[in-house]
Specification:
The complex is a heterodimer of chains A (439) and B (484). Helix content of chain A is 23%, strand content 37%. Chain A has 439 residues and is of the alpha/beta class. Chain B is of the alpha/beta class. Chain B folds into two domains: 82 residues, no CATH class; 396 residues, no CATH class. Helices cover 23% and strands 34% of the residues of chain B. Classes of the chains: A alpha/beta (439), B alpha/beta (484). Chains A and B meet through β19 and β20 of A and β22 and β23 of B.
Chain lengths: 439, 484
């Protein structure tokens, strides 16, 4: 391979940059460093996404640049405009520019016995086997092999949450990831492992320190719910409006497990989110929810895959997008029902609320069914606010702008209402409201 | 494959017929082959010489040869679309296919003039002579050339031109050249390019302003030579305010090696015109059926595709409508049945290009045994349009535990003045329903057959009567042996 083409393939993420990042992880187990080296080699060899790749249909490829970014210098916690989770007594970890800057450990007496809530680096050192079998253990199936490899290669630290068998975490935990400084490249990661019949709620926050700075964010999360476990995961993506963002999710649900993940997409210039759910044993359930508020020229590219690998599993996907200005959204979802996964109940729905005449919504809801005794449906709609509802509100003296906001929140409430924690519900609502106010 | 006419014997209602709903129907129909003496045969394989040969035999004008040669280059340049389509396409061996053969006959005007051996083939197919009384015109394509052609006086008197593609380009270039290859350009896809290079046969129809053709125009296509690809080209133009219904039905004998069928069908509905195009496809299950069908609907025009796919090994067909004029309307009604070893990859495309255009897609598929049915669709509403609406419904029915179905729609909408809705569901025949029917004395197979017919009933009802009867019989046949 010529020098020119390899530079094109790696951009700012040169072999030198990789060695620099690897040096900061030198104290971590050798198997992990080997995996990172292998990941870097995969990243450097893989081509950029091509127009003919179905996994990138409708996506803007010309703006997927890897140039102009850097591995940022540390920042201090007091330099951040940090806002707490808002749940009294809840633990949190705060990362800025790939490093831990603040932590509120869990109080074992109130939070639940034996829960581990720590950094990935500590977990790699102390619970290596657990991390090894779950961290980035699922394949990348939705088209971003190159960027997923980049994430693995440069992942330095993140959050590790382990809930032992039979333990219910009484309070949610919050993980905050900040990016700071022009061109900062961050690689956040959250790993959640819930043992048999364990229960936990985790909230991830992604924020840029300054709204005008351009960042490169390439993050991931692994959610593993053992038999009978229940995992609730929230991600609030609010990077600066100049950020290029990738997020990769891998969810595994075992027998009778239940995973709910809710992604709020508000920030970034171009944001791609890939979510891969595996229902591996009977009774498993995955709830895949997303809310997107797309402004300006933002592009949100959401790709999902829900695979039913065992009989009697269920999944429910509801992705709602509100589109303003010249924003563009892509939803591409696929439900796969394996040959022996009888009695599968799968649902997939994408609703686009068009709030502008220049916005563009693309839906690709797909099904691949190989078992006959199943109930699988999907739906996709795109339309404006119901004129009658608008008229009803206005006829009662509510101003047009306010009526529109009310109706948009009504549109989102179907998703927000699935959250059990009132505080988290309110926090999400606030981010959405803020975004509408600053449009 | 024959429309039911009043001369058909009524289905016996005896007990044995009740036990087997398809008793009395010859199930080997279409499964035969006559040795035909091919006077013009371009041999196997595809080169520039093949194309020149076809053009010479057809005594074509230079511009057509040029068009063909350019298309051949496009075909050779284009890759197989396997990045989204099934890998089964790679099993087509283009070098082993015969691209042209014909008996060198001129289309016959009367039934008596049709040679006996060909008549025999049609009789086995069940096209009765009486049909001429019932149908306006029969343009039966025997292999490449139309071997038999009859247009009823009424249609000709109205000024309707109904002929094969060779004749159309030779005798009415002023009408057909203007639209030929315009709806589906050569480079649209690999197989439209292939068709453009080697096309022969197919129908050319022109319906003059304001003429409403009372009877459906009908054509039969079949493949009769092993390894022989059929590349018919159809172009239908309905002038302002005209209305026409065209029906196309196919049967083909079964062969051990694969055959290729790759048609291009272009429809043009000018202002206020209406075109309905009905297909019942029942190729033998070794046929690759890779067809491009598209219509352009101008202002207030309406194009409706009724597409029914039962046969073939692999069908890839997505009838489309380009809604070019205001208030144009497009509709696709699609039924697909995939049995063991079959893949029905069908769907629809709706390209909205003017304000207040509406489109509707209703697709129903049934997968039996290890059959695989796929819905693939495009709905596209570009910038700055208003008042466009699309409704899409896809329902899949899976009969056996190992049956397979896929759905891959793509919907793009810009702006807040349009609305689309898409819905798809997958299910099996409800056990309650089967139990109910069995408790009333039906066998499980009969109950299943009835349930499947019920599943497509609301679509089948929209077919012309003779086609919906034929469809019901075909489904009964396919459902045989799928239960128990």
């Amino acid at each position: 391979m010529s020098v020119a083409s390899s530079t094109y393939l790696v951009g700012s993420f040169t072999p030198e940059a990789f060695e620099q990042s690897l040096a900061r992880c030198a104290h971590l187990p050798a198997w992990w460093l080997d995996r990172k080296r292998a990941a870097y080699a995969r990243f450097a060899a893989a081509p950029m996404p091509q127009r003919t790749n179905e996994g990138w249909r409708f996506s803007n490829l010309s703006t997927l640049t890897l140039d102009g970014f850097n591995l940022p210098a540390p920042v201090r916690f007091d330099q951040l405009a940090h806002r707490e989770l808002g749940v009294t007594g809840a633990g949190h970890l705060v990362f800025a520019n790939n490093r831990l800057v603040a932590a509120q450990p869990l109080d074992a007496s109130t939070a639940g016995a034996g829960i581990i809530f720590d950094t990935l680096q500590n977990a790699l050192l102390q619970h290596g086997d657990l991390v090894k079998s779950h961290l980035l253990a699922q394949p990348s199936k939705l088209g971003s092999d190159k960027f997923a490899a980049l994430h693995e290669a440069f992942l330095e630290d993140g959050a590790f949450i382990y809930v032992p068998k039979g333990v219910t975490a009484t309070l949610p935990v919050g993980v905050f990831h900040y990016a700071s400084g022009a061109g900062a490249a961050v690689f956040p990661h959250t790993l959640v492992i819930a043992g048999e019949n364990a229960k936990i709620t985790v909230a991830d926050f992604f924020r840029s320190e300054k709204p005008a700075e351009a960042h490169f964010a390439c993050g991931g999360n692994d959610l593993y719910a053992g038999h009978g476990a229940s995992v609730t995961y929230l991600a609030m993506q609010d990077w600066s409006r100049a950020t290029l963002s990738f997020q990769f999710n891998a969810t595994v649900a075992r027998r009778d497990a239940r995973v709910l993940s809710l992604n709020l997409h508000a920030g970034a210039r171009q944001a791609r989110h890939e979510s891969f759910s595996q229902l591996q044993a009977p009774g498993a359930h995955s709830e895949m929810l997303a809310l997107t508020v797309a402004h300006g020229t933002q592009e949100f590219d959401q790709r999902t895959l829900q695979i039913h690998q065992a009989p009697n599993t269920s999944s429910n996907l509801l992705y709602k997008n509100a589109l303003l200005d010249q924003a563009k959204t892509i939803f591409s979802g696929l439900i796969v029902v394996d040959a022996d996964a009888q009695k599968t109940d799968a649902y997939q729905s994408n609703r686009n609320l068009m709030l502008s005449d220049e916005a563009e919504a693309n839906s690709l809801p797909g099904l691949e069914i190989q078992a006959n005794d199943v109930r699988c449906t999907h739906g996709a709609t795109s339309s404006r606010i119901d004129r009658e509802q608008e008229f009803y509100l206005e006829s009662r003296g509510i101003r047009a702008a306010q009526a529109q906001e009310l109706l948009v929140f009504g549109f989102f409430e179907e998703v927000l209402g699935k959250l059990e924690h009132q505080e988290l519900h309110d926090r999400l609502t606030e981010i959405i409201r803020e975004k509408f106010r600053n449009q | 494959m024959k429309p039911l006419s009043d001369t058909d014997p009524a289905t016996p209602i005896a007990d044995e017929a009740a036990a087997n709903p398809v008793a009395g129907i010859d199930q080997t129909k279409g499964d035969f082959q006559y040795k035909v003496d091919y006077a013009f045969d371009a041999g196997t394989g595809l080169t520039e010489d093949t194309v020149r040969y076809i053009s010479t035999v057809k005594k074509e004008e230079p511009w057509i040869l040029e068009f063909r040669l350019k298309a051949l280059k496009t075909f050779l340049r284009k890759p197989m679309p396997t990045h989204w389509a099934t890998k089964d396409l790679e099993n087509i061996d283009f070098a082993k296919i015969r691209y042209y053969l014909s008996q060198g006959q001129k289309p016959k005007r009367t039934w008596d003039e049709v040679p006996d051996d060909i008549k025999k083939t049609f009789e086995r197919l069940g096209i009765p002579e009486q049909e001429r009384k019932f149908l306006a015109g029969v343009e039966a394509q025997f292999d490449s050339e139309a071997a038999y052609s009859n247009i009823k006086d009424i249609v000709a008197k109205q000024g309707v031109i109904f002929c094969n593609s060779t004749e159309g380009l030779r005798e009415h270039p002023e009408i057909f050249r203007k639209f030929f290859g315009k709806v589906i350009p050569t480079g649209d896809n690999k197989f439209s390019a292939l068709n453009s290079a080697v096309f022969s046969g197919g129908s050319f129809i022109y319906v003059p302003k304001g003429v409403k053709v009372a009877q459906p125009l009908q054509a039969y296509f079949r493949i009769n030579a092993e390894n022989f690809g059929q590349f018919e080209r159809t172009l239908i133009i309905a002038d302002e305010g005209a209305e026409v219904v065209y029906m196309e039905g196919c049967t083909a004998p079964k062969f051990s090696t694969s055959t290729l069928h790759s048609a291009v069908v272009e429809l043009v509905a000018l202002k206020g015109a209406k075109i309905q195009y009905i297909t019942v496809q029942n190729w033998a299950n070794n046929v690759f059926n890779l067809v491009t069908k598209r219509g352009v609907a101008h202002e207030d025009a309406e194009i409706k595709w009724i597409d029914c796919n039962i046969g073939s090994r692999l069908t890839m067909k997505y009838p489309g409508v380009v809604l070019k004029g205001e208030r144009a309307r497009g509709e696709v009604l699609s039924i697909a049945l995939a049995n063991d070893g079959q893949h029905q990859d069908t769907g629809a495309k709706m390209i909205h290009a003017a304000n207040n255009t509406t489109s509707n897609i209703i697709a129903k598929s049934i997968s039996v045994g290890q059959g695989r049915s796929t819905y693939r669709g495009v709905v596209h509403i570009p910038k700055h349009l208003k008042g466009c609406k699309n409704n899409t419904e896809c329902d899949a029915l899976l009969i056996n535990t190992n049956s397979r179905t896929d759905t891959y729609p793509a919907i793009s909408v810009r702006g807040d003045r349009n609305a689309t809705q898409h819905e798809a569901s997958v299910s099996k025949v409800s056990e309650d329903m089967i139990f109910y029917m069995q408790s009333r004395g039906l066998t499980e197979a009969q109950a299943m057959s009835l349930a499947v017919n019920g599943f497509i009933n609301d679509l089948a009802r929209q077919f012309p009567m003779e086609y919906s009867v034929e469809l019901k019989r075909l489904i009964d046949l396919e459902m045989e042996g799928s239960v128990g």
